[in-house]
Structure formats: structure tokens, C-alpha cells
Amino acid sequence: MAAGDRTVLQFNSPSSAILSAKVHPLVIFNICDCYVRRPDQAERVIGTLLGSVLPDGTVDIRNSYAVPHTESAEQVALDIEYHHNMLVSHQKVNPKEVIVGWYSTGLGVTGGSALIQDFYSREVPNPIHLTVDTGFRNGEGTVKAFVSVNLSLGDRQLAAQFQEIPLDLCMVEAERVGFDILKKTAVDKLPNDLEGMEVTMGRLLALIDDVYKYVDDVVEGRVPADNNIGRFIAETVASLPKLSPPAFDKLMNDSLQDQLLLLYLSSIARTQLGLAEKLNTAAQIL
């Protein structure tokens, strides 16, 4: 065979390369909720990811919904009509969110993932495959993102290889507290408002101690000064309102009393609802 007639085995990269992805906590919570509510015979949950592709190629995953499916060792069947109906209903509320990929629960890519990836490749170019380990096999809920690269022999496509891409969890501090609790294998109880405030204040004091130690080290000449850190500290200090210690104590006490009042009112409302339900049940019996 001549050198020019040789058939080359090669990977075909996507036309528009996806560099990374970022996922919002709502997606993780929604996937875990769907996994808990799955049918008894289902081993995992599969669904559609919604979001947008940013100009730098990053996929922003902002929402999701589960898609009913059945699977066996040889095949996977998705309810395509349900998938399209959910997409139409969702885009009536969020028209800017489009399909960016799909998700499945489990530690990683499975044998049937290529079939589902092929379906979503017809829905959107270069779909993301997000996996969420709801079984906590590594001690926590591992979240990974993949893209597929086609393996071809000449003009013939042989298979699809999944390659992991960087994934960033976008969340504020309040969301991170909930996510940290969610990814643990066991939790004694969920923190209430006062306990959450105590944890937050503890972290704030630890950060203040770190800043104080850094400033002291710079003044004493133990570490070189960094102008960027100095400007950041100056902007932070300048943004704080000037309050005297008595005024600050009063502000904190007022806020604490407001939270205690809310807890008291919610407790009274819960008690009244319980009494009303029991009276209604007794009236129906009589």
C-alpha cells in the first residue's frame, strides 16, 4: 500500500472547543432532589442541563430538569417527548437559557453515556456531560464535567471518548454553607439561624486575625509588602461605616432580637396551624 493511501486513526476535536464549565448550586440541589424522588427500580437519574455559552467558551450551567428513562445492559431509552415539552415550558419562563448538555448521577462515565451523548449532540453542538456522585463513594458528592471527542478511522467514526474539563462551582457564601452540608455523608442536624450566624462570625474573626497578622508581619519587616493586598485592605476598611462600640452593640442586639421575634412568630403560627388541623379532623369525625 502506498504511503499516501494509508488510513489514519485520529481524534476529531469539536469545532468550537469548550475550555471549561461552571455550575450553579441550584443545579446540584435539583439533581440530588430528583435522585431522592426517583422510581424504586431506577438506579440513576438522567436529565437536561440548561444555561448559556459565554464568549470565552465557558459553559454556564444554570438550571436543569430530569428526563424519564429506562436502561438495560445494551440500550438506554429516553422519553424524548417529555424532554421537548419540558424545554418548551422552561423557555417560556427563561427564554435566554438553552440546552448546554445533560447530566447523570454516578461516579463517572458509563457504557450507555455515548448513546445519550449522541442524542444531545443532535440537540446542541458539543454538549456537556455532568456527573454527580450521589452515592458518596469517595466520601463526598463528586461533581465532574466531560466533553466527547470522536475517534475515527478515515471517514468512519468508531467511538466517542469522554475528556474531563475544568469545572467551577459558582456560589456565594450562604450557598456554600448548604453545599458543604449536602456533600457530607452524615450530618447530625441542620444549623438554625443562630448557629449559622455563629459559624459565619467565627470565619469572619479568623479572616480578621489573618489580616492583622499579615499587616503586623509587613510592619515588622518579616514579609515583603504587596501593594495589591494593601489597596484591597484599604478599600475594605474604607467601606466600613464608622460606628462607635455602643452603637455597633445596639445594632447587633436589635438584629438579634428581630431574628428571635421571627422565630417566636413562626413557632406560634406553626402551633395554630396544628391546632386548626386537629380541630378540622375532629369536626369531620363528629
UniProtKB/TrEMBL annotation:
The gene is LOC107934980. Its main location: cytoplasm. Belongs to the eIF-3 subunit F family. CDD domains: MPN_eIF3f. Component of the eukaryotic translation initiation factor 3 (eIF-3) complex, which is involved in protein synthesis of a specialized repertoire of mRNAs and, together with other initiation factors, stimulates binding of mRNA and methionyl-tRNAi to the 40S ribosome. The eIF-3 complex specifically targets and initiates translation of a subset of mRNAs involved in cell proliferation. Component of the eukaryotic translation initiation factor 3 (eIF-3) complex. Residues 21-152 form the MPN domain. One of its GO terms (biological process) is translational initiation. It comes from Gossypium hirsutum (Upland cotton). It comes from the Eukaryota. One of its GO terms (cellular component) is eukaryotic 43S preinitiation complex. Keywords: Cytoplasm, Initiation factor, Protein biosynthesis. The keyword Glycoprotein does not apply. This is Eukaryotic translation initiation factor 3 subunit F. The keyword Ligase does not apply.
